[in-house]
Amino acid sequence: MDRFVKKKSVFEEFLCGSFAERYVLPGEPYEELIDRAAAQIRAADTVLLGAGAGMSTAAGAEYGGKFFEEQFGEFQEIYGKGPYMRDMYSAGFYPFPDEESFWGYWSKMALTAGADLDVTPLHRTLLKALAGKKLFLLTTNADGQFAKAGLPEEQIFATQGSYDRIQCRRGCHPKTYEAVALFRRMDGARRAGRIPSDLVPKCPVCGGPMGMNLRSDEHFIQDENWYAAEARFGRFLSRCVQGSTVLLELGVGFNTPGIIRFPFEKLTREHENIRLIRLSRSKAMVPAGLGERATGIQADMARSIADLAKKCG
Ligand SMILES: [Zn+2]
Hints:
Blueprint: E1 4-5, H1 10-16, E2 23-26, H2 30-43, E3 46-51, H3 53-59, H4 65-79, H5 88-92, H6 99-115, H7 120-129, E4 134-139, H8 145-148, E5 156-158, E6 161-168, E7 176-178, H9 180-189, E8 210-214, H10 224-240, E9 245-250, H11 261-270, E10 274-280, E11 286-287, E12 294-298, H12 301-312
Parallel strand pairs: 3-4, 3-9, 4-5, 9-10, 10-12
Antiparallel strand pairs: 1-2, 2-11, 6-7, 6-8
Helix pairs in contact: 2-12, 6-9, 7-12
The structure holds zinc ion.
Residues 168, 170, 172-173, 203, 205-206, 208 line the site of zinc ion.
């Protein structure tokens, strides 16, 4: 019997460079995989977390459907549903007619997806289970949930920006600005989807429009805090390749696999001391050639994190 369940994933195999060795889900029962992963975590002194959008979703964050209709119905009424006004992300790409309308939407979106989002119980469960480990988080999430759950900022590298910060939209100078208080003023002053003109932020250097500090084009600003976090991440990586290390990947799919997913596979492939544990609702495949050094657990992540925590705490 083949111990792997073969799934058709040619393009994903090609992207991750493991086409020849196959990209597969382990065939063992769920409980066995949890036991193995928990044993590897208990044995590790160092854990590098890699969290993608699936982590926030598993923790309870909502972006579309009924939630969007309830929270953002006023924008659907103004702009129509069309292709944009269906969930928070798509709505962010709407070609708003002016700055007042742009910030009318984005202030509410930034608060809803960032400062006011609190889906931290699952994050706390995980952090508690990893107490005592040398811990660092690499994440593409901009929602700050691990920090809210108590992970120190010095142990977080959020590569794609933050819902709490703004920057020059043209990226004319390498600074970002905390904007939660401004978003709250905008949110309170919005009428018919628009904010008053005197609340529209202007770049203090070039006078042009400001935008969100979220990586969406070549103008994304990596400010001094970003580079400081990158440097700390680099030092942590040096530690990861020694000692006993687990890379614990949480809800990372194929939207930006080049940031967490593929580098985690490469690190595991190249360093005998590293184990990869990949939790995902639908994309938990791992390179078969890594054998038991890579464990993909494809399940509801709220469940698999709770089960792992029970056996690690
Ligand atoms: Zn500027």
